[in-house]
Amino acid sequence: MSKAYQRPKVAVIGAGFAGLRCADVLLQGGVDVTVFEARNRIGGRVFQVSLEGQLYDVGANWIHEPNENPLMDIAKDTNTFVCPRPFGVALVDSSGRSRSIPYAERLKTTIDDLFDRASEYSYQHSAAIDPRLSIMDYVRDRVTEEFKGQPEFMQDLHREAERRGMWDGDPTSSLSLKHQCLEKGPGGIDVFVSGTYKNIVSQVAKPALEKGVVQLGQKVNRIIYQDDSSPAKVMVETSSGTQESFDEVVVTCPLGWLKKHRTSFFVPELPPPLSQAIDNISFGRLEKIYLTFPLAFWLSRGQDQQSTGSIDGYPCVTHFHHPSYVKNQIPYPANQMIVSLTHLLQGHTQPTILFYIHGPYATQLVHTIKGLEPHGDEYNNVLETYTKPFYSRLPNYAINDPACKPRSYYCSTWQLDDLAGNGSYSNFQIGQADAAKDVAILRDAGVLNRMKGVWFAGEHVAPACRQATTVGAYISGERVAENICKKWDMVLKRVSQGQPLAHI
């Protein structure tokens, strides 16, 4: 019987964006699909919690590079409210002093320009750049050359550059200048998913859920493939003790999980080039803290809150430089950003601020709250200790005003989540010699896909301009599905959930 008359049997490991989109496209091609998900929910690192009756995204909460982005179409189709990234910014410096809005905006504009130039420099000279050089090295050199004689501004630029590491989840001093060019995408102003990713994920999952092919709470322990020269079945062994053979297996487990478990998960072990590629790509440490207050005290009381970007003249975003006014309390650099969700949420009714924390500072915090009961007194006290030095510097703060005391605290703990890979998403750090080659090896699965039926999908193997994003995971899952259908001569009658992605 020729391939055209066979219906391949495919296992998809993981029900995040990559796995769900992969299953959708495979189902459109007439493939027999089973999705194994270890959690009792779909979505992977896209997940919401309810605080004070409002849903908030614990994982991804932006759509990056919205041009030619299918998730924007799905957001529109599901009536998910999104808000363009605001441009206004306030600044509290290391001494706790609120700087003028013009100074803060000059600082932001300058550092944005320096990072854009770093990307262009990387794009033009990547092959010649020493892998040991960081983005921070480039910024320091340019700042020294261009702002000599302005010591305060130079120091503030350094702190702003350190804060920018939050976008990758690790300190800017650890991020590769050589591979910064790989993050240049199709463009557009990033949008905040104010309505949360909940309905977007549900829409992507709908075909697989309706077909009943998703098995929740079903953890896969091992993938057993044949270590010889002929194509063969791939065995999937679950934690419940079942074994089932498949023609193809798509592994969408996070990069951090692969780093930790690949030697026991794949039988036999993965070929050395593939294992080395997994080791070479890094995994970030971004976490989020949500604080909800009785009122948005940082805004003037009684003001009309019907605009975005700035309400009553105060910007949506406040940058904080490491608080030197707090002694022996925050041992790691804490140059960070907080976002006023009052500006961004639909209806502008939520008096909530969102902290983005990353790197060693985030690691210390999540390990401090490890084992504590969320929303319990000890948990809240830890988060209060970490956040008060920042929110207490917002406008209108008064220590005895009840409106200035949080009534709800929440911190993500992705670094404690084994299924999430104990981190956030992939990045490229100093010392990596050839990131594009490593990603290509992992994307190609070291030819295991063509010969042995083992494939990889996820944000870590997305097209270079989409890595470390939700749409990158989505595209990656779709492309693997298309390649499987092509391998088996399946006719793919696309009913796309977004724009066709074949040429992105």
TrEMBL record:
Top-rank taxon, per record: Eukaryota
Pfam families listed in its UniProt record: Amino_oxidase
BP terms from Gene Ontology: chromatin remodeling
Matches recorded under InterPro entries: Amino_oxidase (IPR002937), FAD/NAD-bd_sf (IPR036188), Flavin_monoamine_oxidase (IPR050281)
GO-annotated molecular function: chromatin binding; flavin adenine dinucleotide binding; oxidoreductase activity
Amine oxidase domain: residues covered: 17-484
Name the record gives this protein: Amine oxidase domain-containing protein
Lineage, top ranks: Eukaryota, Fungi, Dikarya, Ascomycota, Pezizomycotina
